[in-house]
Structure to design on (118 residues):
């Protein structure tokens, strides 16, 4: 079963995303911030990470950079609000493979996960 790590400080977004992925046959683990994601990644070994860009403590860009240090092959898609184009470009340069815009479209999330999980 494909494992997805959903990282978002907003409980509603984590719940919504986790429910969608679970209903579509994915195993989901959640993290509430970047530091928690870095702790869970080596233990959970997800196939794909959905990573919010804007979070307190450690933002998504820093988290992405640290994830790439742990696993250079990490498959990460950034989850971003409209209007964060510069941050998305930074994330793609830092190693993100794709991005999803919030409020997210279910079909787009599933397409992104399927593409990255390959």
């Amino acid at each position: 079963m494909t494992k997805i790590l959903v990282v978002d400080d907003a409980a509603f977004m984590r719940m919504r995303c986790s429910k969608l992925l679970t209903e579509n046959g994915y195993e989901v683990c959640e993290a509430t911030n970047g530091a928690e994601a870095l702790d869970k990644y080596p233990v959970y070994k997800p196939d794909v990470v959905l990573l919010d860009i804007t979070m307190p403590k450690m933002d998504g860009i820093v988290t992405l950079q640290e994830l790439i240090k742990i696993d250079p092959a990490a498959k990460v898609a950034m989850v971003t609000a409209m209007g964060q184009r510069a941050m998305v470009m930074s994330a793609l340069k830092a190693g993100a493979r794709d991005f999803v815009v919030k409020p997210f479209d279910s079909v787009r999330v599933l397409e992104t996960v399927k593409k990255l999980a390959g």
Summary: The beta strands are 3-7, 27-31, 48-52, 76-81, 98-102. The CA atoms of residues 79 and 107 lie 14 Å apart.
